[in-house]
Each structure stands twice: as C-alpha cells, then as structure tokens.
Amino acid sequence: MKVMAQMSMVMNLDKCIGCHTCSVTCKQAWTNRTGVEYVWFNNVETRPGVGYPRTYEDQEKWRGGWTLNKRGRLKLRDGGRFKKLSRIFSNPKLPEIHDYYEPWTYDYDMLLNSPSGEHTPVATPKSLLTGKDMKIGWSANWDDNLGGSLETMDQDPLLAKMSEEVKAEYEKAFMFYLPRICEHCLNPSCVASCPSGAMYKRAEDGIVLVDQDACRGWRMCVSGCPYKKVYFNHRTGKAEKCTFCYPRIEVGLPTVCAETCVGRLRYLGLVLYDADAVAAAASVEDEHDLLDAQRGVLLDPHDPAVIEAARAGGIPEDWIESAQASPIWKLIRDYEIALPLHPEYRTMPMVWYIPPLSPVVDVVTNTGNDGEDADNLFAAIDKLRIPIGYLAELFSAGDPAPVDLSLRKLAAMRSYMRGVSMSDHRDESITEAVGMSGPQMEEMYRLLAIAKYEERYVIPPAHAEQAHDLEEMGCSLDFEGGPGMGGAGPFGSSSGESVPVAVENFHSLKNRQTSDRPSSPGRVNLLNWDGNGTPEGLFPPEDGK
Amino acid sequence: MSTSAILLWVVLPYAAAAVFIVGHILRYRYDKFGWTTRSSQTYENRLLRWGSPMFHFGILMVIAGHVVGLLIPRQWLYAIGINEHIYHLGATWMGTAAAILTVAGLIILIYRRRTVGPVFLATTAMDKVMYVFLGATLGFGTLATLVYQVFGPGYSYRESISPWIRQMIIFQPHPEMMVEVPLFFQLHVATACALFALWPFTRLVHVFSAPIPYFFRPYIVYRSRDESRGAGSRPVRRGWDPVAAPQPRGKRGSNR
C-alpha cells in the first residue's frame, strides 16, 4: 500500500443555478490572455447539450481516455507510444478552434468615434484570430439554458445513446447545469499521452500540471484527455490547463471557482488513496464496476493501518487530520451521494458530483403534489427513468442504481428535515428507507444545506518549511509570453525567460499609478488588450518624457 | 587556394557550426519557454494534415540519405556489397522520391501559411527568414539531384563533398575539394550552412526535442513540488537564494 494525498472537489449540482460566476472569475484569474481567448479552465454546460468543446464526450470520435486491450490491460484509447509518435506531425484527433469557438471582440471604437448619421452606429464583431469581421455562430455556452437546443440537442453524445422517444421528450422533462474543471485524475491519460514528459501529477497533492518550460507543443495531451480540459495556447505553442489554483491551495485558500461560487456548491478537501491500487481499479472489466473500484482505491483516513502507512509515506500529520475532516471523504464514502464524471473513461477522475434532485422535485410540484413528501419523491424517482438514465450516462457509466440511490438520499433528507423544522418530528422510517440514521441525515443536511465555509473547504496549507520552494514555481501560467511587460522576446512572442508574478504586478501597478491624467485620445480597444504591454494611446506619457 | 574558397568552404561552415552549437546551448539555457514547435494545427487542419507529415517524413528520409552519402566512406559500403552502381541508383531514385515528398510538403505548408489568415498572422519575422533559407537549401539540393543525377551524367559527390565534410569534422579542412564541385551542389552546401547558423534562433529547435524518452518512461509522471523547482524550469539565480532560518550554532549538520 502506497498512500498518497489527493486534493479533490465535489460539486452539488442541486444548487447550481448556472450563473457562470465560476467561469468568469476563473477566466479573469487564469486565461485572460492572448492565445487562450477561447479557453475556459472552468465552464458551465447546460445538460442535455453538446458541451464545450462540441461533443467532447463522443469518444468514438475524439478517442480520449483509456480502454482495455484484448488481454484486459489498460491502453490509451487513441493508441500507445508508437502510434502517438507516428502521428506527431499532425494529430488527427486534435480539436480545431471551431470545435471550441472562434474568439471575438467588438469594434467598440465605432460607437464613440463614428460621425453623426441617420443610423445608430453598431459595434461589429471582429475575430480575435484574424482581426476581420466575423459572424458569431458558436461559443463556450451557446446552448445555455437549452437555447437553440432544438437545433443542436441531437448532437449530445449522451442522448445519442438513449432511445428516440426519450430524445423527443427530453426537453420537457429535465434540464440542469454541469460546471466542469480539470478532473485531476488518479490515472491521467493526458499525462500518459505527453511525449515530452512535461505533464505531471504532483506527488504531494495530486494536482496535474503542465511544466511550461518542458512542453514542446506536441498537442497529444489535448486529444488524450477525454474531458478535453487541456488546451493549446496558440500564441505560445504550449499546453495549458486548470491548475486547481495551486498557488491558493498551497496557502490554504480555496480555488477561485469555489471561492466565488454564489451557490456555495463546491467542496474541497483531501482524500488519501492507494497509488498501487489505481491501475488495477482502472482496469476492471465491467464499466459498471468502475465506480466501486474507484471508491475502493480511496482509503479510510480513520483506519489506523492507513494512518500508519500515510506517516511512513511522508504525509505530514496535519494533512492526515485534514483528510479525516475532509468533506470529500464524507460525500464519497460516508454518504455515498457523490459520483464521478464519466468513470467509463478509466482515468479515475477526482472531481465528483452530487446529482441534481431539483428537477425531480419540480416535476412532482408541477403535478400539484407535495414535492417534499418522501413517498411522492421516491415514486417520482422510480418513474422518471429518463433523467435517471441520462444522469447514469454521466456519472456511473450508464448504471442507474448509484444515481438512484443518491437521489433517494437527497429526497429522504428533504422530507426528513421538513419534519424536523416544521414539527420537530424525526421520522426515522424515512432515513431507514435509504439506509441512514437520523443523526447521520442531520449531519449530511448540515454539510449540504448549511454548508459552512470551513466545512466546505478543508485545505491544509503546504508546509512552511517548503514554502520557499513553492514560491513562484516554474509551471505557473501567469505570464503572457514576452519577458516582463515589454512584450516579445527575440525569437517571437513567446520566447524569453518567464517572468515572476511579482515583477509583472510591479509593472502593471506602476503603469496604473503613474497614469494620473486621462490618456491621450487614441484608438485603443480595451477589450482587445490582454493586460500586457502598453498599447499606444492607452496610458498618458510619463512625466519627464 | 583563393581567399573566397577558404571563406566559403572553411570559415563559413565552421562559423555556422559554432553558432549552431553555442546558439542551442544559450537558447536552451535562457529560453526554454520559447522552445516549442509553435504548432498552428488548431487554426487549420485540412492542409496541415497532408503537408506536415509529407514534409516531415520526407525530410527524415533526406537526413538519413545524407548520413549514408556524406558520413559513411564508400569503401565501407563496398565491403557490404553496395557497389557504385547500386548506390547511384538507390541514392538517385530514393533521394528524388524523398525530395519530391519534402518539397511538395513544404509547398503545401508555405501556401497554407500565406493564405490561411490566422496562420499568417501567427508567422514571425524569424519564421519568414527561416522559410527562405530552408526553401533555398531544399531547392538547390533538389535541383542538384535533378540536373546532375537524374537528367545529367551523374556526379560522384562521394569523391569530393563527402571527404570534404569528413575532413572538416576531424578539423583538417581541405577546401580545394569543393572548388570543382558543380554550382548547384555548392549553392546547396552554402545555403545549408546559413540555415544551420540560423537554426538555434528559429522554431527549428524543436528537432532536438524529438520525444525519444517517451518510449522508455512510465506513462504516469509524478513530480514532487521540490523537484519541479530543481528540474527546472526556473533556476535559482546567483544572489537570489531563498531565505531560510539560520541554523543555530553547534547544531549545524546534526539535523539533516
């Protein structure tokens, strides 16, 4: 047994209102730069829908993740080392920019500077790739709230697996939001696909990162990831991905997406797992067994043998304590209500989801029945096979049983807690129906519904004695391309040494603080400005120049 | 021996080699972040899907041919039964095939670079200079093969160019060997030298990143936080040692 720690996340989809705050704050923090205009480390998809990039879940087409070979051993679905290198000059499975969307801005300058005329001036959309006028036809959340989904919904790879009548009825039946970040898998196929060895899983906390200095732009990680959560920066020619906000995690702060989530639906914490058991668990034959296999890889942090092995493996004492207090462990193993996203990809993803009950409640309420009555809800869960089948395609490789159980627990919690708060009546028959005790149910309620900050986020800071090593680590994505704020290096826009965050901040602060007069009138499109360099006309001339 | 011959066939190649080697070391030392293929596949794939493999597999064949023709003395090949006639046939026809593949691939790639908007915008000045010299080197090499080998009487460069290169490698230059060489071969060699001198400052550096270690490493890579600093990306510069608590006197060396 080799105990390792993994920083992971659970999202409670019941509470997601699809506001995209996580996406926007993440973008501001990480991908607000040229070259990654089209990149959303965090995106929110409306399901059913085609996702971002379009139809990424169709692994017959994109061939990401792992599969089993004839001898029942794991292999990369798109082929092993030889096949990868034979396709290195042109990766046939790489999504093109149009599979994401062509990034654009608007010619806002037109609104200010056009001469007076008969018609109101309009800001025409301009492509950020070519600079030319473009027609906007797709984006990262084009089918938000099922918008236009009559046109596109039949492209949803999950619906394609379901029957025709289901497809026709779907839109009436069910809709929910799915926020997605990198899964920071235990068995990451992007890492396995990287020819340069630039991608790695951090031994301390399991965060999967790209070493920007070692990446050579072979693009195999992008096609290797079944979730399509590694992106190619077309300006620097390097891969970039969700970093799990490691600079924040290292000092005990939650990720930006979690911190800013208005629904407070994200949970962060450590789990301990047995690294030696990962490969065996990822290669169980029946896809329906993958969920249990992955649960089995996670180790009980209260088990003395595990604690002993964790100490022997060099995991610090406060990290073990954090793993014991981890909301992730509770949601995955104690309550068994959190489920992984697409376990059938065999990457052992570590961002899990609590499936949404609210659509079921809505159906019950809309029929005029009591949406908080346990029997009504249980009956509805039994009857609503369509949404359950769809959720099962997402979270349990098509096996409805785990989704069913998870929703039943949520339904039981709902009606049990109504009894508690309305009449102080604790009806244990409800909790027993889902195999839980009353106090356990109240604990779960506290974690899910009250969701206190310090219970949602149990993040042990990285160790002080290591702190100097963590500062400004090399794989950070926080530089745009050129050295300093000056722009390009000698060999093109991406060359030159990487610039520490502090230096970059220094320059931008200096720019801001010395700009005490309005800038000279010029044609600057602020939305085209990536925050680097000093475009002409943006800042007033410095005094003394 | 004329001065121009010495300049062209001794000074230029050695200077190019020096720039090539030192340039790569410096670039790797100071610009790891810029060391990439700078792929433009996300912009456009229809033309690249054909052009890029054609060019790259072609150029690999071309390189293999040059190694056999230039670096291996012909007596060694005679010894394993490859006589002048067999060699000439093989070199000419396989070489021509490789050249056609490479040049056709390059033409597709340059056409793509010029006509596809985003790809053209992502082209740096250095890329353009590189394309000129790469195209010239390939063009003169192909011309030399066509003019002298395919349609001409055949020129035995293994009596002049090959020994000249081997003499250069052992630092005993014989520039006179190159003086009588036909013009297109001379131009091919000269532009190649210039290309080598440019090499470390272009995206061509990605040639030295050929991911051979991928065959030998385990699929999943783990790195420790400490390692990722040391293996590094950002080396600790002199005078910027991290601040650490001083060791109390007498305890030095005892803990760790």
UniProtKB/TrEMBL annotation, chain A:
Please list the residue ranges annotated as the 4Fe-4S ferredoxin-type domain: 7-36, 173-204, 206-235
Note one Pfam family from the annotation: Nitr_red_bet_C
Please tell me where this protein is predominantly located: other
Q: Where is this region: Disordered?
A: 484-545
The record's subcellular locations are: Cell envelope
Q: Which cofactor does it need?
A: [4Fe-4S] cluster; [3Fe-4S] cluster
What the entry lists under PROSITE patterns is as follows: 4FE4S_FER_2
Q: Which InterPro entries match?
A: 4Fe4S_Fe-S-bd, Nitr_red_bet_C, Nitr_red_bet_C_sf, NO3_Rdtase_bsu
Provide the alphabetized UniProt keywords. Answer: 4Fe-4S, Electron transport, Iron, Iron-sulfur, Metal-binding, Repeat, Transport
Does Kinase appear among the keywords? no
Instruction: Please give the NCBIfam families that the UniProt record associates with this protein.
Output: narH (TIGR01660)
According to UniProt, the name of this protein is Nitrate reductase subunit beta
- Record organism: Glutamicibacter ardleyensis
TrEMBL record, chain B:
Task: Extract the InterPro entries matched here.
Answer: Heme-iron_electron_transfer, NarG-like_domain, NarG-like_sf, Nitrate_red_gam
Q: Where is the NarG-like domain?
A: 6-225
Q: Which domain of life does the UniProt lineage start with?
A: Bacteria
Q: Which residues cross the membrane?
A: 6-26, 47-72, 92-111, 131-151, 183-201
What Gene3D superfamilies does the database record attribute to this sequence?
Transmembrane di-heme cytochromes, Chain C
Protein's membrane topology: Multi-pass membrane protein
Keywords (alphabetical) are: Cell membrane, Electron transport, Heme, Iron, Membrane, Metal-binding, Nitrate assimilation, Oxidoreductase, Transmembrane, Transmembrane helix, Transport
Localization: Cell membrane
This protein's major location comes to membrane
Region (Disordered) residue ranges read: 229-256
- Protein name, please? Nitrate reductase subunit gamma
